[in-house]
Specification:
Mean pLDDT: 96
Number of domains: 2
Strand content: 25-35%
Low-confidence stretches: none
CATH class of the largest domain: Alpha Beta
Largest sheet: 8 strands, mixed
Helix content: 25-40%
């Protein structure tokens, strides 16, 4: 395996500039969830150039490709990259900035696709040196419910052939370029979206005794919701309930008839996740009724928690140390962010790991989902190489 590892490293270095070009193309031309038509066409064109067979239009815009080594039916491993961008107006001034107004790859999916394309090219060149099949999954719509992973699974992406394990990679601006990180077991939280309509009776703001003020009611609800975290949840069950949008269509002197609240629930425990929803309904309705109003509540079921298979992740740690060296592999803490890779990991053993992209000397320090997000592109060499190595190493099983 050592000679194969060195060949993967050499090919990763050789194709780095090409992969940077892929990433910059994706970054210039971002597309929103389930609208990744041009993105898919670009991926398909590259796979065709490499001579890798693939299937298009899986879950509308997704692509699934197969690289078959020797004894192709012996074992299958999957590699996944997400494709969609976010509705964010980019503030960077690089020549490869988004050319689509109000849409940006602010979560690094451009890098994920570029790395998987680079890994695909490398793996196709070394396919006579490993046994088994590598399934490449280019997945649409990670950012929007119901999530492309769920739809792809429903359309059979984990069948014909069925992978025994799956790897997902995500950029991580909290970790220096050249490093990767992972955590066995519970890693990322489940996510649900909360929509509350608080109903009152509007009127003149200068005559508050003649109205039922939904803004005041909504304010009490937002504050009271924090008791779900501080008084209802156990310290061993990390929980977040946050509201990111409050809208009441009033004016300085007009109290509206209703106010809309939108927020999220994040946690790791599935039974507690359901209890939180009941607590939210009880608290919101109780406060509204006590103040003379009422409320309608809709909670949209989102992604489950990402739980990395412990045995696979422990093996992945060892594989990564073999490839990068012990000093470049870091243990990570649980995160309250969410990922629809969780659907894959519910079906088969999965390992979702992080690729460091930070470079303080280059001022590449912005957080994910920010308008100034960028990556140190030298990290792409690590990203494409480690994906290729993990796949062949897991196939070898030794």
């Amino acid at each position: 395996m050592n000679s194969l590892k060195e060949r993967i490293k050499a090919l990763s270095a050789e194709y780095l500039e090409e992969v940077i070009g892929y990433r910059r193309h994706f970054h210039r031309h971002p597309e929103l969830s389930f609208k990744e038509f041009e993105t898919a066409a670009f991926i398909a064109a590259r796979l065709s150039e490499f001579g890798i067979p693939f299937e298009e239009k899986v879950a509308k815009t997704g692509i699934v490709a197969l690289i078959k080594g020797k004894d192709a039916e012996s074992k299958t491993v999957a590699l996944r990259a997400d494709m969609d961008a976010l509705p964010i107006l980019e503030k960077n001034t690089h020549e490869y900035c988004s050319q689509t107004e109000g849409v940006m790859h602010a979560c690094g999916h451009d890098a994920h696709m570029a790395c998987l394309l680079g890994a695909a090219r490398v793996l196709n060149e070394v396919k006579n040196d490993f046994s088994g099949t590598i399934k490449l999954i280019f997945q649409p719509s990670e950012e929007s419910y119901p999530g492309g992973a769920k739809v792809m699974i429903e359309e059979g992406v984990l069948e014909n052939p069925a992978p025994q394990s799956i790897f997902g990679q995500h950029v991580f601006p909290e970790l220096e370029a050249g490093f990767i990180g992972m955590r066995p077991g519970k890693y990322m939280a489940s996510t649900d979206e909360v929509f509350i309509t608080v109903k009152g009776k509007g009127g003149h703001a200068a005559i508050p005794d003649k109205v039922i003020d939904p803004i005041l009611i909504a304010s009490h609800i937002v504050v009271a919701m924090q008791q779900v975290v501080s008084r209802k949840s156990s310290p061993v069950m990390p929980t977040v309930v946050s509201f990111g949008k409050i809208h009441g269509d009033g004016k300085t002197n007009v109290i509206p008839d209703e106010v809309k609240l939108e927020g999220i629930i994040r946690t790791f425990d599935s039974s507690w996740r359901e209890e939180i929803k009941e607590q939210i309904k009880k608290i919101a309705c109780g406060i509204a009724e006590s103040m003379g109003g009422s409320c309608d509540i809709f909670i949209d079921q989102g992604y489950p928690a990402v739980v990395n298979d412990e045995a696979l992740t422990n093996r992945t740690w060892d594989y990564a140390v073999e490839y990068l060296g012990e000093e470049k592999v870091k243990a990570l803490e649980m995160r309250m962010t969410a990922e629809d890779f969780s659907y894959f990991a519910q079906k088969i053993p999965g390992c979702f790991f992080r690729l460091g992209t930070r470079n303080e000397e280059k001022n590449i320090i912005s957080n994910l989902h920010s308008a100034s997000f960028d990556i140190d592109e030298t990290s792409l060499e690590t990203g494409l190489g480690i994906m290729a190595w993990l796949a062949v190493r897991e196939l070898s099983g030794s």
